[in-house]
Structure formats: structure tokens, C-alpha cells
Write a structure and sequence with these properties.
With 124 residues, this protein is of the alpha+beta class. Helices cover 22% and strands 21% of the residues. The chain is built from one helix and four strands, in the order ββββα.
Length: 124
């Protein structure tokens, strides 16, 4: 292994609520190393492999450009879906109507003010 490019996996516990470390295998992207294109045009994503919370190896996930594009689209869709779900939970309630207008990334228009009756004229 090339020590100059080795980025040790953090040893500080990442879960502040002291939940136990997950058991089994885990694959995490190396935060300090971005994805890159290799000499053959493939996309490589530096990864850490861990088992039962202990670092086992560094590796690159190698993807064809079409695979990287598909992965990117699916991750973006999952993130958009999570954002929409959180917004719906926040704004759903009595008297709230959600109307989807335009593309999914468009900001919805501000809600209209509540309808009120016109002022009554008093006759004397």
C-alpha cells in the first residue's frame, strides 16, 4: 500500500448518542479524497472497508461512466424524495393542501391568504 496516499479511517466514535457500532461489513467513502477519472476513463471512488467498526482496507469503487451517471441520478432522486417527505411532514396538517406545480425541483408558490368576507356596510 502506498503510504503517501493512505488516509487512516477516523478512530473517534462517530455516533454522539453512544449507540453501539453496527456489526458486519460497512463501506464508506473516504471524506478527504474525491472521486476521480482514471486513465481508462472509469470513475473511481476511494472507499474504506470496515468490519464490526474496525478498518480493514482502503479500496476504490470502479464504475463505468454510465454506471456512475446512473448511481448519481439514483442518489439525487433519493435525496429529493427525502427532502419532499420531510417537507410534507412539516407542512401537512388540518387546512393544508399540497399542490404540486411545475418540475419537482421548483419551489412551490406561497400559500394564498385565507379568504375573508368583504366588509359589511352599516346603514343608519
Amino acid at each position: 500500500m502506498d503510504r503517501a496516499n493512505h488516509h487512516p479511517m477516523p478512530t473517534k466514535k462517530q455516533n454522539p448518542d453512544n449507540t453501539p457500532t453496527p456489526r458486519g461489513w460497512r463501506i464508506d467513502p473516504v471524506p478527504s479524497r474525491p472521486a476521480y477519472r482514471d486513465g481508462d476513463g472509469n470513475v473511481r471512488v476511494p472507499m474504506w472497508l470496515a468490519r464490526d467498526g474496525r478498518h480493514v482496507a482502503d479500496a476504490d469503487m470502479m464504475l463505468l461512466p454510465s454506471e456512475a451517471e446512473l448511481l448519481s441520478e439514483r442518489l439525487a432522486a433519493a435525496l429529493r424524495g427525502a427532502a419532499r417527505s420531510a417537507a410534507r411532514e412539516l407542512f401537512d396538517g388540518p387546512g393544508v393542501t399540497v399542490v404540486n406545480v411545475g418540475p419537482p425541483w421548483a419551489t412551490p408558490p406561497a400559500p394564498a391568504p385565507p379568504a375573508t368576507a368583504p366588509p359589511r356596510c352599516s346603514r343608519r
